[in-house]
Amino acid sequence: MIQYVRVDFRLVHGQVIHSWLKSTDSNTIYILDDDLMSEPYKMKMFRICVPPFVKLEMYSVDQGIQKLLEHKDDRKYRCLVLLRDIMPCLKVCNALHLNTFNIGETIYASDKKRIANSVYVSEQDIHAMNEYLMNDCTIDIRQVSDSRKSVYSKRKLFTYE
After folding, report:
1. In this structure, are residues 77 and 87 in contact, taking their beta carbons and an 8 Å threshold?
2. Euclidean distance between CA atoms 144 and 23, whole angstroms
3. Cα gap 63→71, rounded to integer Å
4. Which of 37, 85, 132, 135 has a 20 to 30 Å separation from 48 between CA atoms?
């Protein structure tokens, strides 16, 4: 059962372990990232970072969607789903009919605009997120679970200025 979906280019780090796992009551972390599958060293480092009482699963985006569909109603798996980028996250949310996700931090690039503290998006991201929001979905932006969140919906769309 999916508890929460989060975009954060760092994937597993202190905020995830100490804040997000607890606030979402998750016992399993799913990292869905195509590039990570070809980086065994990073995968090993993530396994070291996760406490022993938390199960860690790492898949490509498409494999992750299939695995999450298999465990969709299984209450034994309370999953925090982590993705590095917005477009793969939207793919997951659309495939699994999820109506919300969180953006924590995204990577800066010269072709991206800053829309919040540590959140940089492309025009393509903005268009895709607004399309998602028009389906009665929400996106919240915040770095830690107990901080104030900025919530976007079809009443409050993203702009690219």
Report:
1. no
2. 10
3. 13
4. 85
For the four alpha carbons of 158, 138, 129 and 101, in that order, the dihedral sign comes to: positive
CA atoms within 13 Å, Cβ hemisphere of 119: 20
Query: Closest Cα to residue 130, out of 157, 99, 107?
Result: 157
pLDDT digits (tens, 9 = 90+) for 40-95: 999 999 999 999 999 999 999 999 999 999 988 888 889 999 999 999 999 999 99
DSSP string covering 46-94, please?
A: HHHHS-TTSEEEEE-HHHHHHHHHHTTT-TT--EEEEESSHHHHHHHHH
32 near 59, Cβ under 8 Å?
yes
Q: Which residue(s) pair with 6 in the sheet?
A: 82, 102
CA angle 146, 150, 153 (to 5 degrees): 130
C-alpha separations of 122 from 7, 9, 18, 61, 85 in Å: 15, 15, 30, 20, 11
Q: Output the six-digit token pair for 78.
A: 């309370």
**CA-CA distance, 92 to 47, in Å (whole number)?**
23
Q: What is the pLDDT of residue 128?
A: 98
Alpha-carbon gap, residue 161 to 151, rounded angstroms: 19
What pLDDT score was predicted for residue 73?
Answer: 82
